[in-house]
Amino acid sequence: MNLSLPKEKLDIINQIKEIYNFFSSNKSFSKLIPEVRTNISGSLPNAKNKSEIAGIEGRITIIDGFPKASGEIKFGVSDHTARLILTAKEFENSINFVMNLKYIPKLIKSIQDDSDLELQEILREEQPEEVKKKEYSTMQWLIKENIHKKGRIPDIIWDKGAMGKEPMMRLFGENSKDIIKKLEIILHLIKLIQL
Fold first, then answer.
1. Cα separation, 183 vs 79, whole angstroms
2. Domain assignment present for 116
3. Domain region containing 178
4. Number of domains within the chain
5. For residues 155 and 123, what is the distance between their CA atoms, to the nearest angstrom?
6. Which pLDDT score is estimated for 140?
7. Tell me, what CATH number does 39's domain have?
8. Is the Cβ–Cβ distance between 84 and 92 less than 8 Å?
9. 172: which residues sit within 8 A by CB, 6+ positions away?
10. Which tens digit of pLDDT belongs to each residue from 57-101?
11. Residues 98-133 pLDDT 10s
12. Residue 45: how many CB atoms within 10 A of its CB?
C-alpha cells in the first residue's frame, strides 16, 4: 500500500480492507460471489469521478472455496461499482460504499421476511431502449429508477438480469461498519436457509 497517499484516501483503503478481512476467511461468503466476481468500492466523501473511488484490482474471486482478492486495493480501478456510487451520491451523498453480490432468490426472500434490511427490485425490462443501447448508462438508470420509486436508496437493489446480464444484488452503505453490519445479517441468513 502506498503510504504517501493523503490521509482521506488511506482511510478509504483501510475501510475496504476491513470489509474484506471480515469475510475473507468465511467460506459461506463464497456463495455470494457472482460469475462476474465481486468488488468492494469505497469513495471519498465528495467523489465526482472514478479516480476518487477505490476498489480491489481484478475483483474478488474464489480460491480453494474461500473468497480471495485478485489484486491490491487502489483508486481508479473499479468501474461497475464506481458508477453505482457516483450515481448514488447524486441523490444521497452519505452513500460511500457498494458491493455487488450474487442474486439468490431464496436469500432475497429470507432478507425480506427475516431482516430489517430494505430491498428494492429493479425490472430491467422496464429499462428504456436508449438506456440499453448506451454503454455505461444502466447503472445510472438503475439508481434513478429506484429513487423515483422509493425516494431514497435502500440497503440492497437487486434484479433478475437480462440477456447477457447476470442477475445481481448490490449492497449499499455509508462506511465499512455499515457494510459489515449488513453482511453479518446476510451471512447469518445464508446459514439459516442452508445455502
1. 22
2. yes
3. 7-192
4. 1
5. 17
6. 75
7. 3.40.225.10
8. no
9. 84, 88, 95, 97, 98, 153, 154, 155, 156, 157
10. 999 999 999 999 999 999 999 988 998 999 899 889 999 999 999
11. 999 999 999 999 999 999 999 988 776 666 676 666
12. 12
